[in-house]
Amino acid sequence: MAQSMSPAVSQPDRGDIAAALIRTYSKAEARMMNPLTLAYIGDVVYSDYIRRYLVAEGLTKVDRLTKRSVHFVRASAQAKAIRRMMPELTDEERAIVRRGRNTKSMPPKHAEVMDYRYATGLEALFGYLDLTGSRKRELALMARAIELTDD
Predict the structure, then answer these.
(1) If both were cysteines, with which of 19, 23, 88, 101 could 121 make a disulfide (CB 3.0 to 4.6 Å apart)?
(2) Could you say which of 16, 43, 91, 115 is catalytic?
C-alpha cells in the first residue's frame, strides 16, 4: 500500500471541542458573521425550542410531534411571526433580521420567496441571540413567536 503524501491532520483535543461547543461570541463578532451562518445556527435553535414546547404540551407520539412542529417551523409561519414582531425588536435586532432577509439564497420550491426571506431573517436573529449568549431575550422572543403562530 502506498503511503499518503499529505501531512497528518491533528484532531483537536476534547478540551478544545468542549470550548467550541459553548463558545459565546461578542455582539461585534456575531454582527460580522455571514447572515446565512447566523440563520444556520438559528434554524437549529428555533427547531429545538419548538420541539421542547411540543413535548411540554404533552405530545408523545413522534408522528404527531413532527406534524405539529411543521406548523411552527415552515417558512410561512416563521415569516408571519417575524413580520408581527418587527415593531417589538430593538434597532440592532431589526438590522440582523434585515441582513438575513436580504441575503441571497435559493428558496425551496414549496415556499414563497418573501416568506422564505423573512424566515431566514428570523433564523438569523435567533442565531445571533444564541451565539451572543442573549438567552433571556432569546426566550422572550421565542415565546412571542410561538404565541403569534400557535393558532
Answers:
(1) 101
(2) 43
